[in-house]
Every structure is written in structure tokens, then in C-alpha cells.
Amino acid sequence: MEIKVLRHGTHIPGNDYDGYMYSFNTSKSYSFDSHLHKCYEIIHVIHGSLIYTVEGREYRISDGDIVITSPDELHSFSFPEESAYQREFLHIYPGFIERCPVIADMLNSRNPGEFNHIPQDKAVKYGFDKIFDDVRSACEKPVAETDLIVFANVMLFAAKMHLMLSEDAPKYVEREADSKARTIYSYIDLHYTEDINAGTIASVMAMSETAARKMFKKETGMTIKSYLTLRRVTAAKNLIMEGQKAMNIFTQCGFGDYSTFYRSFIKYVGMTPDAFKHRHDGNK
Fold first, then answer.
1. Do 157 and 201 sit in the same domain of this protein?
2. Higher confidence at residue 261 or residue 175?
3. pLDDT at 71 over 80
4. How crowded is the C-beta side of 10, counted as CA atoms within 13 Å?
């Protein structure tokens, strides 16, 4: 197995809007709890056998497969057993492709949690593996044209994916995560701006709070409280990037007071709301 680390791109950490990042690396297997990106994430699994969960739908991933998630698709992954994990991925931020809106239209042609998995045979049939070969080659020895080469390959990937979904939707073995967990996802997505908590949600689900907490944690890797807070913080980040002030939006996002919002924002974003705003404004 080829062991190397390669990383190249124009994305600046803390900027949730612009740039791209390509990465190739090998690591031991590990689990990653449910999380969100503000970018399109395209992963090419070179070696590894893992379980990838997107919006409550579980995919079994192996060598040669590709996984794609769009901004704000909640996802996590874990390994049935310890093994080497080699992958390459592209993070594509919305600003990088805004010059060609049709790319985003094609990348957004899936419904959340559907067709996130491209099996190895479909990856070869539609040339997704060759697209990654071209991107890897361009990023190994960057030149002035590298960004344009990556952009062209992202456009090609989006077109190929759209073609695949229209004429040859991938067949894969999948199973739904516990339907009650998916119902909780949906309820929070619709009501996170309201005064709700784990107890409220358990009541709606006709479950005891303890049972709801255990079930959700087992199926998603997150607590109900963590997912609810993450959705609220994500909404706040979007409003701040739209130019609104943190002091004016925390109640719109479901936080009862500014201090709770402030602490939660730092926990999930890694900086204060003002620092996030300055970082975002500085990267425009």
C-alpha cells in the first residue's frame, strides 16, 4: 500500500465559503461522530471497509468506492474492525464553483441521504477513479494551472454523477438507521428555532426521555442535545455569513440567551461569533 500524505488547495481554515482542498492520506481505522460540513465532500476510498451513515441512512463502503455529501448533510463513519484506511478526498466550497452555477445544480440533484454511495464498479464505469487520478496528479506538483485543472475535474465529476443518476442509478446494499432516529432528525430540523429539548422530543416520539436519548446516541453517535445545538449553531453561522450580527440572531436560531449561544458557538466552531465574522469578511 502506498504510504504518503498529500495536501493541496486554496481553502483557508475558518472560511466556510470559498476554495477547495485535496487530501491523500493513510491512517488506522477510527470513528468519527456525526458532523456537518459547509462544503461538498467527495471521498475516494482506496483501501478500507467502513460503515458510512448519512442523514440516518447506512452505507457499507469498501475499496474503490466513492462517497459524496453535500453541505449540511449530517454524516458519520465507523469501522467494523480495525484496519488500515487509505483515502483521498476533495472538499469543494460553494464559492469555488459559483462561476458555473450548473455544477452546484448537478451536485444538488440528490435528495439528502440518497445516493451518497458510488460503488467501485460504477466509479470505474463512469470514470470517477480517473478524475481523482487527474486531480491527484495536478496537486502533487502544483503549477499556475492547477486550480483550473481541479475546477475542470469538479465540473466533469458533477456531469458524470448527474448522468449516472439519470441513466444508471447505483444499486447498493443499504439499510435505514432506526426510523425513530430519522424522525428525531426531521423533527429537530423543522423545530430547532423553537424552545425544545430532549424531553420535548421524547414526548413527541411517545418515548421516555431516557429511552430516546439512548436510542439516538446508539444510532447516530451524537446526543439529542448535541445535534440540536449543532443545527442551531449551523443556522447562526449562515446568518452571520449573510451579514447579520450575532447579538441580533441568536433567538432566531433557538437559543434562549446570548451566553448559551456564545459558549455553544465557541464549542462547535472553535472561535467566537465576532472572530468568525471577521474571518469570513476578511476572506471575501
1. no
2. 261
3. yes
4. 21
Q: Which residue has the cell 453541505?
A: 71
* Whole-number Å distance between alpha carbons of 188 and 9: 34
Which residue blocks in the chain are alpha helix, DSSP H? 101-107, 120-125, 128-140, 146-167, 179-191, 198-204, 209-220, 224-241, 246-249, 258-269, 273-282
- Cell matching residue 216: 439516538
- Integer Cα distance of 136 and 150 in angstroms: 9
Predicted TM-score of the model (pTM)? 0.68
Total domains in the chain come to 2
pLDDT digits (tens, 9 = 90+) for 11-69: 987 787 899 999 999 998 887 777 778 899 999 999 999 999 887 788 899 999 999 99
29 CB-near residues (< 8 Å, 6+ apart): 48, 50, 79, 81, 82, 83, 84, 85
User: What gap in Å lies between CA 237 and CA 272, rounded to an integer?
Assistant: 11
Give the domain-ending residue among 158, 174, 190. 174
Burial group, residue 157, by CB count within 10 angstroms (0-12, 13-18, 19+): buried
Query: Grid coordinates representing 86?
Result: 487509505
